[in-house]
Design goal:
This protein is of the alpha+beta class and 244 residues long. It is built from seven helices and eleven strands. It has a five-stranded antiparallel sheet with strand order 7-11-10-9-8, with helices on both faces. The N and C termini lie far apart (70 Å). Bound molecules: zinc ion. Zinc ion binds next to helix 2.
């Protein structure tokens, strides 16, 4: 009996170690009891593609709160991709988006209809789309560097092409190689610090106060540029002082 109770003691207290994980999004620790993971990008973007496209998708550890916070945004973005999707082979994706939009009652208010009664476009919630890109940015950052981007960074997604965003996209695509989650037809990305490049095709490691930029390419039909800037000014001043 004594042996059994000793064994019980060990199995309860020692043999099952608490494995702590760092959440890719908030950077906080959580233990293996509430272990969760997040797919980057969301599974919804793989709908309509061959099953083997889903193999080797990026997964990152996520706390339950961050995992559920982003689920609505994923649906919103799938709707956007589905609506702008013109490839017949991906009709299932469009169909799913349409169904998902009909599901929500007041969605019809989003339709932009001209005087002839034809649909000119569909309005999307900008904040949901921005959250979606922010989530994927955090996901690829974690995947590349092994830690969550510090909270002091302000993350700003750009989805409209401008002269400035085009310059940044060129910086990324001219100097570095695309990386993939699952299949390039579904998701490709480049994430790098914004810095002078000495050797092309060689990944840079972020230093404190580096601005981080990423391009995220979805379904070969929609690209977002994301910029992250450290807003911790005291740190910037300190680094500058040390540098001189
Ligand atoms: Zn979290």
């Amino acid at each position: 009996m004594l042996i059994i109770s000793i064994l019980n003691f060990f199995s309860k207290n020692i043999l099952i170690p608490k494995i702590m994980k760092i959440c890719y999004s908030c950077g906080k620790e959580f233990d293996n009891k509430e272990m969760n993971k997040e797919h980057i990008p969301a599974k919804a973007l793989f709908v309509g593609y061959p099953d083997d496209y889903k193999v080797n998708r990026i997964t990152v550890p996520s706390c339950i709160k961050c995992n559920s916070d982003y689920s609505v945004d994923d649906e919103e973005f799938r709707n956007l991709i589905g609506i702008i999707n013109s490839d017949i082979s991906r009709d299932i994706l469009s169909e799913k988006s349409a169904k998902s939009m009909i599901k929500i009652k007041n969605q019809v208010d989003r339709l932009v209809i001209n005087q002839l009664g034809t649909i000119e476009g569909v309005e999307f919630e900008e904040s949901a789309i921005n959250n979606f890109h922010t989530k994927n940015f955090k996901g690829v950052f974690y995947k590349e560097y092994g830690y969550a981007i510090p909270e002091t960074y302000k993350i700003v997604p750009f989805t409209e092409p401008t002269e400035q965003t085009k310059l940044l996209l060129h910086y990324l695509t001219d100097n570095f190689e695309w990386k993939v989650s699952g299949n390039r037809n579904v998701f490709g990305y480049i994430i790098q610090p914004s810095r002078e490049v000495k050797n092309k095709k060689v990944d840079l490691k972020p230093a404190s106060n580096d601005k981080i930029i990423a391009c995220l390419d979805y379904n070969l039909s929609h690209t977002a540029l994301v910029v992250a800037i450290n807003t911790n000014q005291t740190r910037i001043t300190k680094d500058l002082q040390e540098g001189f």
